[in-house]
Amino acid sequence: MREQQPERGHRSGRRAAEGNAARAPRHEAVGRYRPATAGAGTSGAGTTAQLPAQAAATALTATRSAASAQRRGGILNAIIGVIGELLITAGIVVGLFIVWQVYWTDLGANRDQAQQIETVNKQWGDPRGATKVGTPRTDAPPAADHVNRTGDLEGIIYIPRFGADWRYTVKYGVDLEAVVDTGSFGHYPDTQYVGEVGNYAITAHRQTYGAAMRDVPELQPGDPIIVQTKNAYYVYKVGEHEVVPPTQVGVLAPVPNKPEEAPTQRILTITTCHPPFVSSDRWITYATLDHWVDAAEGAPAELVK
């Protein structure tokens, strides 16, 4: 019996060890996934559950921000597009206006002038087709008709420096619509008539509506300016130029810029705008009567080809 006690003690110890081992916690290998069980700690499980929700919220916020930015960008692009279209339209309108103002009015005025001059030349004669040169005379020229209604014809002006075909009508008055914008030179009503002692002052456009005086800077001292009437040709010679503000009306005095003096010369004054397209000043050309030619005897040598 005593020999068996150790065996029972040994078996009891083994069963106790086995029981303790069964009750001891089992250690999982590092890295092995073990799903959480119900009733386990809530902190880890809550964090894990919140991750998808936070990601979804972040994605939704980003989507909304992108959509908002896209809407703002779309509105801005639309505004820029409208402004661009308006600027293009405005540019086209301005371009068309410039074409009309600069070129179309020139074509219309020059066409009308050519028709009017052709009619007048049939009555007075065309010096460009003349074969006889009239005698230059320096005695008192014949008085021109004193027309006094705006738009009445006074004569035809020629400036050979501007070309053999350069010629325009001269009419009474300086009304834009009735006279100057038709391509004609306008005669200032309060100044003398062609050929008279004093100041025969006329005006014409430098830009648009025929642009008769476009090349005024090319005029040189001594260049002839001829005014044809029914009975005579009045040949003036260019003296000098000056540029003045529009308010300097003294250029229209019987003695230009010296209104207190009595005139002794037969002066021609031509006014036009300066500079082109701006017209802030006036370009003034002065000429003095050199001689005249009786239309019945022929045309001035300056006009006969």
Automatic annotation (TrEMBL):
Which protein, by its recorded name, is this? Sortase
Extract the SUPFAM superfamilies matched here: Sortase (SSF63817)
TM helices/strands, residue ranges? 74-103
Query: Could you name the active-site residues?
Result: H205, C273
The biased composition feature labelled Basic and acidic residues covers 1-10
Annotated InterPro entries: Sortase, Sortase_Class_E, Sortase_dom-sf, Sortase_E
What are the Low complexity biased-composition ranges?
36-47
Q: Which domain of life is it from?
A: Bacteria
Keywords in alphabetical order, please: Hydrolase, Membrane, Transmembrane, Transmembrane helix
The source organism is: Actinotignum schaalii FB123-CNA-2
Q: Region Disordered: which residues?
A: 1-47
Identify a single GO molecular function assigned to this protein.
Answer: hydrolase activity
Which Gene3D superfamilies is this protein grouped with?
A: Sortase
The yes or no answer to whether the keyword Transmembrane is present is: yes
